[in-house]
Amino acid sequence: MKYWIIGASSGIGREIAMQLSELGNEVVVSSSNKSNLEKLNEGNHEKFKLLSFDVSNKAEVNEACNIIKEDSGDALCIIYMAARYDAYEQDKGKESKLGNYENIINVNIIGLLHIIENMHNHLKNTKKRSKFIICSSLVAFKGLPFSQPYSLTKAALYNLSSSFFAENHKYFDVKVITPGFVDTPLTRKNKFDMPFIISASKAAQIIIKGLNSKKYEISFPLVTRIIMVSLSIMPHFIYNFLIKKFS
């Protein structure tokens, strides 16, 4: 199976690419950050095929997908890790700033839809069963203070993954990844403590193990998942009371 990792220039996506390659897999890596992609091949004898493009640019996505279709092999695993995030800023007495929300939505949601539109039928018709993996987040379970607009995009991806699975489970595998806090360039923008944070290397190990499992959702760490699921099923009046009391 060939692996195509979209959003592989840093963070979890980069670690997944490195570990899959070390296991002997053929890996195509994509990102809009061409210089970071090229660093993946430094000292690695060009073991990665580099395909740089901007997921929010439909024409560039069309071109990249056509290249993948021409040489996808018997089966293809697409792992959509591309994400944008700006730390929500709010200081007392100052104007709140949502960050570059248009770019966040374009990359996190619109970019994925561009890929799905191009690759959907191709995945249904590969010789062997293919896979489509979507990275959401545990923040999708409950809106937390200062997490928008990033959290709304991850909630959208969680919903989309469920719908996409229902439509396509007969043809190819669909899985969703819901990580908690992972030490990456994105999360280092945060100005608050991140409980139960794990390394990108550890996250990649968990994800790769989950790729070959029968489970639909790859979620970690367990303690963070328990907390977020508990918040999601908690009656609103209790949750709102706690928010008012402790924030």
Largest sheet, strands/sense/barrel: 7 strands, parallel
Number of strands: 9
Q: Cα-atom Rg, whole angstroms? A: 18 Å
Work out the strand percent: 15-25%
- Find the structural class using helix and strand composition: alpha/beta
The CATH architecture classification is 3-Layer(aba) Sandwich
Q: What is the CATH top level name?
A: Alpha Beta
Low-confidence sequence ranges: none
Helix-strand pattern:
EHEHEHEHEHEEEHEHH
| CATH topology type | Rossmann fold
Structure notes:
The chain is α/β, with parallel strands linked by helices and 247 residues long. The chain has a single domain (2-246), classed as NAD(P)-binding Rossmann-like Domain (Rossmann fold), CATH 3.40.50. The chain is built from eight helices and nine strands. It has helices spanning 11-22, 34-40, 58-70, 101-124, 150-168, 200-211, 222-233, 236-246, and strands spanning 2-6, 26-31, 49-52, 76-80, 131-135, 173-179, 182-183, 198-199, 217-220. The protein has a seven-stranded parallel beta sheet with strand order 3-2-1-4-5-6-9, with helices on both faces. Strands 7-8 form a two-stranded parallel ribbon. Helix 1 packs across helix 6 (200-211). The chain is globular and about 55 Å long.
